[in-house]
Design goal:
By secondary structure, this protein is α/β, with parallel strands linked by helices. The protein is built from twelve helices and 14 strands. It has two domains: 149 residues, Alpha-Beta Plaits (2-Layer Sandwich); 161 residues, EAL domain (TIM Barrel, Alpha-Beta Barrel), CATH 3.20.20. α2 crosses α3. One of its GO terms (molecular function) is cyclic-guanylate-specific phosphodiesterase activity.
Length: 325
């Protein structure tokens, strides 16, 4: 076996030790973390045995397309670590271009894409662990870009992750001590016109006919939904959040005697939690309009229809189908 290709069971620390020895004499080093795009999907569709053969093929493929002296380590089920020494920083781009040329290929009847995150010694760091982590930040961004993307580390990636962790902490705090504030955006109508999200207007005798619930977090700053809702939607806290939203909205609807529009997450709608909360809090005189997007129906049609049937059976809300996300 090629001594430069470590087996999967070899721990990352051993690979990083080898890198630490090499950078003692290296002028410039390219640290690459590479993984197989949608490997989980490949295993499910084509079988784990075929997936295993694919990984073995990629190992051979990397050996064939890189130099003998380049370090190649398999550090997970579908992730590889590569360290390549070059003489000048300018050489980095020619190496990455070469990698780009083989970052997509055909294995039997499977189209394979390799996604890569890259950090550069000594410009992004001098410690192997630091370079490893920064290549990981770049890989995370590469996965968001395209199946065979190669992304160089940028400090803004790290800042974005730290901000995400901060927002997650704030969400937990907001749930625990009820920092969520719900604002109700008036929706006005007249005989001929209906104005949505009209911030400033002047017209005689226009009166609110409904309102849309807007969520904010009032912590050290006021956080808008665009800053936290994408994290909340995949977090268990979404259940408590939406129950609080529905409880508050039904109360406002009854007091103001107008319909309240609420946006619910794809997760809670498909699971039917929206129906449970409405049955729990809806009262005579309450009018709740639920806004959903097309992907909720498309993603899991049968379960979505089941939720719709339950909603319509209880006759508790109006379903508003919007193309907005």
């Amino acid at each position: 076996m090629n001594k430069n290709l470590y087996p999967e069971v070899l721990i990352i620390e051993k690979i990083l030790f080898e890198v630490s020895e090499r950078i003692k004499t290296a002028k410039v080093g390219i640290f690459i973390r590479m993984d197989v795009f949608e490997m989980g999907y490949i295993n499910i569709k084509y079988g784990f045995e075929k997936g295993k053969r694919l990984i073995e093929e990629i190992e051979r493929f990397l050996r064939q397309n890189l130099r003998k002296e380049d370090l190649i380590g398999r550090i997970g089920p579908d992730e590889f670590l590569i360290f390549i020494e070059v003489k000048r920083k300018e050489d980095v781009f020619s190496v990455l271009k070469r990698i780009e040329n083989f970052s997509s290929f055909k294995f039997e009847d499977i189209s394979v894409f390799l996604t890569s995150g890259v950090s550069i010694y000594p410009f992004d760091g001098v410690n192997p662990l630091e370079l490893f982590e920064k290549a990981g930040f770049a890989l995370k961004e590469a996965k968001k870009s395209s199946p065979n993307a190669i992304v160089l580390y940028d400090k803004k990636f790290e800042d974005k992750i730290l901000e995400t962790l901060k927002i997650q902490t704030i969400i937990k705090e907001a749930i625990d001590i009820n920092l969520f504030k719900f604002y109700y955006q008036p929706i006005f109508s007249s005989k001929f016109f209906r104005f949505y999200y009209q911030p400033i207007f002047s017209s005689k005798d226009l009166k609110p006919c409904s309102a849309e619930a807007l969520a904010r977090i009032a912590s050290d700053n006021l956080y808008t939904a665009s800053e936290f809702i994408h994290l909340l939607e995949v977090h268990p806290f979404i259940y408590e959040f939406e129950e609080n939203l529905i409880k508050t909205s039904t109360f406002k609807s009854k007091n103001w005697d107008i319909p309240i529009h609420i946006n619910v997450s794809e997760k809670t709608f498909i699971e039917g939690k929206i129906v449970e909360n409405l049955k729990k809090y809806i009262k005579a005189g309450c009018k709740i309009t639920v806004e959903i997007v097309e992907r909720v129906i498309i993603k899991d049609f049968k379960r979505a229809v089941k939720t719709l049937e339950r909603v319509l059976y209880h006759n508790s809300i109006t379903i508003y189908h919007s193309g907005r996300s």
